[in-house]
UniProtKB/TrEMBL annotation:
Pfam families hit by this protein: SnoaL_4
Lineage: Bacteria, Bacillati, Actinomycetota, Actinomycetes, Kitasatosporales
InterPro entries, per the entry: NTF2-like_dom_sf (IPR032710), SnoaL-like (IPR037401)
Source organism per UniProt: Streptomyces gibsoniae
Highest taxon, organism lineage: Bacteria
Residues of the SnoaL-like domain: 4-121
UniProt protein name: Nuclear transport factor 2 family protein
């Protein structure tokens, strides 16, 4: 069992993202990895590149992490990481804090070289809040604009779409429990299927910052 290795992999990916250590972040992902979250769906390599571009535009968030829960079967592991995504943002000249609670599910595989790498990240959204930094300040948010967004990530979707990102209404959230149950079932099925040929080969590309 290598639960410590999996824990450090998951935490290192989040830390590297928050600190702008993009070379280290890239090293966390397998070559065929997939990332699915509110503003991005694609490969792990593209996720690193787009994260770097997002930070370059000044769109910056930090992640407050809770201990991950892990299950390991041979060379496969599942880790669920509860977290809070925190944004300090500007809404028409008013400073505000946006906080989105979610849990990210990590698939990890151990290659022939003995190193664990991320195969997939899928986010499940719980709820979010939007408050002014200065108590009593009014935020100019039209309630009518929010009706089109789902309650599990309403403010996050509203803000990111306002900034020019594309956030659809199809993402996993606790307001759609049937889909979430199906996600857990699929993850546990994957865990016990055994290694894929690609994972067994343990090959990957080198990444540099």
């Amino acid at each position: 069992m290598s639960s410590d290795d999996v824990t450090q992999l998951v935490l290192r990916e989040r830390q590297s993202r928050d600190r702008g250590w993009y070379g280290e972040m890239a090293d966390c992902f397998a070559d065929d990895s997939i990332v699915q979250m509110s503003w991005f769906t694609g490969s792990g390599a593209d996720f690193v590149r787009q994260t770097r571009a997002m930070a370059g535009r000044g769109d910056y968030a930090v992640h407050r992490l809770s201990p991950p829960a892990e299950r390991i079967d041979g060379d496969r592991a599942l880790a669920e990481l509860p977290l809070m995504i925190e944004w300090r943002i500007d809404i028409d000249g008013v400073e505000a804090d946006l906080a989105s609670a979610c849990r990210s599910q990590y698939r990890a595989e151990r290659g022939a070289d003995g190193i664990w790498r991320i195969a997939r990240i899928t986010s499940i959204y719980e709820k979010d809040t939007l408050v002014p930094v200065l108590p009593g300040t009014r935020l100019a948010v039209d309630p009518g604009e929010l009706t089109r967004y789902r309650p599990s990530y309403r403010f996050l979707a509203w803000y990111l779409n306002r900034k020019g990102y594309t956030v659809g209404d199809h993402h996993l959230g606790d307001d759609q429990p049937v889909a979430v149950t199906g996600q857990y079932r699929a993850e546990h099925t994957w865990l016990h299927q055994g290694p894929t040929p690609a994972a067994s080969a343990g090959t990957r590309k080198e990444h540099h910052s």
